[in-house]
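Reviewer comment 2.1 asked that we show a complete input and output for one of the modelled complexes. We chose the magnesium ion case, as it is the one discussed in the main text.
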Amino acid sequence: MIDILLGLQWGDEGKGKIVDVLAPDYKVVARFQGGPNAGHTLEFDGKKHVLHQIPSGIFREDCINIIGNGVVLDPIIFKKEILGLKDYNIDFSKNLFVSKKTAVIIPTHRILDAAYENAKGKSKIGSTLKGIGPAYSDKISRQGLRLGDILSESFKEKYEKLVNSHKQILAFYNHEYQLEEAEKEFFEAVEFIKGFNLVDGEYLLNEQLKAGTKVLAEGAQGSLLDVDFGSYPFVTSSNTTAAGVCSGLGVSPSKINEVYGIFKAYCTRVGSGPFPTELLDDEGERMRQEGWEFGSTTGRPRRTGWLDLPALKYSIMLNGVTQLIMMKADVLNIFDEIKICTHYKLPDGTITEELPYDICDIEITPVYKTMKGWATSLAGINDFEKMPVELQEYTSYIEREVGVPVTYVSTSPDRTATLERKSGL
Ligand code: GDP
Ligand code: IMO
Ligand code: MG
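Response of the prediction step:
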């Protein structure tokens, strides 16, 4: 069976940490969408690691990691990531498999990303500029390159054809760029990737499932950045929700079992787009500093705000979440009072729990419930039942509101600070 772990907010919920924590229970960890726009952080033995395209089960010796066909892969970043792992003696020939159907990001995709963003001016998406949108666009418009193509004799030809079409667009946008150095790096990385297991990922996964193996699908980004259900156009270019697992790995929905939904005890967002509970004041800045909310991929400061229950309920509904994991509870240690948005007030005075279609164009006023904070450190508490009563109440309130059990609570970046909790539901 396949369990899924995915983010319920705008990304950076702590997926990398939790996949690493859960990985010993799984034989396979597979990424099904996204690409190097992701930055998944893991911490253990006093060291921090950020993974972009390689699944977060890579540090667990017995875990097979698969990059699925739904991913867009940048070979240059792949090579850097692999070289960055050289101190860990990972046997990639046993532990890492990449689907031949994975879409390839080429250097002009990144340049196109920048050209499109520049052209948008004030309404820019705030993309990570990793070429994600252009690479997915080429896939959907049936002119993209797939990883398996690098093994074909006509790869260079296919590549040139695609680059030429990109050059025409870039000329239209009057966008200046340098390509030579990046192209050289790209072709070196393509040769490098040939040394890895390039496979028919859908067969590999289905064979594993047939043999009764437990598979964990690792989401990237968050449900509120989903191309269909996020605050379009301020979204990423893939289905980040559970639905993306079947198409992104080549598996049947009947194989899906548990859906772990992961959320921060508050909210963050990086890039543009609506954020109803955003704190633009000193409280927001304190939250950013305490949570060290700076992008794992781009280093950009993340926008911060209180927990948004209408948005959380929406994500839970879209994904069919069966268990919740609450992250970064420790960041709220600094507040005497904690707010939770329970409803939205729309410009016409309507109070609603639903995300309005025109969320990008209207002013939403959050309706808050205020709870007493615990205002104390959580360090060294290894048992959820020994947590301050205010944190227990905060957690129980959330799970009662959304109707799904919170089964884990995380209180620091380290692997070990992940407490199992007996749900009250
Ligand atoms: P991902 O993209 O969902 O994997 O999340 P990121 O790695 O981009 O961002 C999460 C950040 O929060 C990372 O810096 C983690 O090390 C950190 N983190 C994860 N869990 C906790 C936690 O419980 N408490 C604190 N303070 N930091 C955490
Ligand atoms: P992980 O997996 C947070 C955001 C960008 C931008 C929008 C579109 O680490 O949670 P893109 O580069 O995809 O064209 O950017 O989506 N974004 C993320 N925000 N975490 C991520 O990944 C993100 N990946 C993309 O900031 O607003
Ligand atoms: Mg991240």
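The two ends are 25 Å apart (CA to CA). We note this here for comparison with the apo prediction described in Section 3.2.
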